[in-house]
Amino acid sequence: MSSDEALVESAIQKQYDDLARVYDLRWRRYLSDTLSFLKAWADIPPAATVLDVACGTGELVRLLIQDHPSQVIAGIDISERMVVHASQKLEGYANVSFKNAAVSDLPFSSESFDVVVSANAFHYFSDPCEALTEIFRVLKPGGKVIILDWCKDFLLCRICDLILQWLDPAHQQCYTEAELSHYLDITGFQVERAQRVRFGILWGLMAVSSVGKSANHNSFDS
Question: How confident is the model at residue 14 (pLDDT cuts 50, 70, 90)?
Fold first, then answer.
């Protein structure tokens, strides 16, 4: 890891450690809108083993477990305090686990998961190719990565992106749908479907589902 990447990770960790206690309350409407959309859009099979990258306080995991209480789900986050809150929130589920880790160094064996999902976090990853390569590593052959993030195809998102790059040391950059598709392509994925969606006036996002190019079907479909 370069010194610049280490500084970025330190900034993100500090920011979200400070926010962890109030995060769910402060972002309640945004989390409800975006994660409920993602849960329905992704349509993850109950038999799939799932990794939530940058899981925050575990809200997406909580939504998935509501419908399928026995689903095996792991979550990682760079903020230790976020992981603590997520673990407390889902402490009654032995099939759910959380770890303090960065996307650049996932603490799992290769080919461990059927689905990796990342919601509202890709714009924080300092090296998108490194992140996607590590995600590819932990996916089973034919597994899927599902990404929901801010989309620079929306004008207001482009403006916010410029402002945040100036004001927020943790923020890296947003991407257009074409840019994200390019990163997925060069790291071994094939985009199966994508959708742009707006929540209110400000929030313009994209959802992208991709499968590893090395297989013709999902491992959990067989």
Answer: confident
